[in-house]
Automatic annotation (TrEMBL):
Keyword Cell membrane attached: yes
The species this protein was found in: Azospirillum oryzae
Any Pfam family the entry gives: FUSC_2
Domain of life of the organism encoding this protein: Bacteria
Residues annotated as transmembrane: 29-52, 64-85, 136-158
Signal peptide: none
Stated name of the protein: Fusaric acid resistance protein family protein
Membrane topology: Multi-pass membrane protein
Keyword check for Cytoplasm: no
Domain Integral membrane bound transporter: 31-150
Amino acid sequence: MQSPSRFLAAAVHGDPVRRAVQTTVAAVGSYALMTVLGLPQASWAVISALFVTQINVGATFNSVIYRLASAVLGTATGLGCVYLIGQGPWQTALSLAVAAFIIDALSGRWPGLRFAAVVAGILIMSHQGNDPLTTALLRALAITIGALVAGLAALLILPVPAHRRAQHHLAEALRQCGSLMARLGQQDRKDDDEEQRRRDIHTAIRDNLQSVIANSRQSRHPHARNGDGPGYETLTEAVQRLWHTLDMACSIDLHPLSERARATLSGTLAPIAAEGCAHLHRIADAVEQDGIPPRPEGLQEDLGTARQRLGNLGSALPDDEKAQLIAVGLILREVGTNMYAIAEPLRGNDNAGGG
């Protein structure tokens, strides 16, 4: 049972609570700063802070950049339309059309610029009776303050860099692959609970791998882009290949085998499944802790021994049963290849240093 202190720490550092704290601080901080500086348009600063805060530091910083760019683009477009097209009902309608066309065309290439349409549209429709330049600059300043305060909150309050989120999800995907590995040789278990558990494992692997890619693309850390060791996309592809291999392994129908052959096969695969699961968990721990994963050679030798035992067993079986063992042997070889493809890139710096 989890202790209250660990439960509280997990809750506070969990994504929903952590983001809520950052968003709250960003909103209140933006309002307070606007009030202290005596600036108008405080609502724009607060709204900017609320929408800029994201799930990790990298995503928040990307959002800050796009929010500032949107403020500049929206202000420039809105002012250009007001001064060049003029004022009045029909001029306002034309200005809105021109601004919407320009900004939508740009945001089709850079979706983060969509907020510029809001800035430009409100500037065009609300400038009557005011100096449009002053109004636009004050609004842009408020948006900038809100975005910068949100970025500062993400950096200082319970920060989680995007590449750390990617590491966490990659480690979780490896652990779930370990859960599949542990089920090798148990294909005859067809109860509903086990089937649901396998579906849950597949869903967890898929979701975690998608999160690895999403977080790595938000990250500015060099490791996320192949600048320092293997990139996350490379590792994700390797884990995905292992996942598909293990899925095939768990899908092989062992019922054509005799009861004695199934028992021998299960006895051969059980230690491999347990060691493979433990090996994947050790790799996952190394990924999450910036450590060096274990060498795969020991597991490779165990897989080779298992394939040899399967070959000996198959030589004494009729042809219709032998095919199942050949398939299992080929899959074990592929599992070994996949394990190597995951572990060795992560050990790259260690191997270079030792060579």
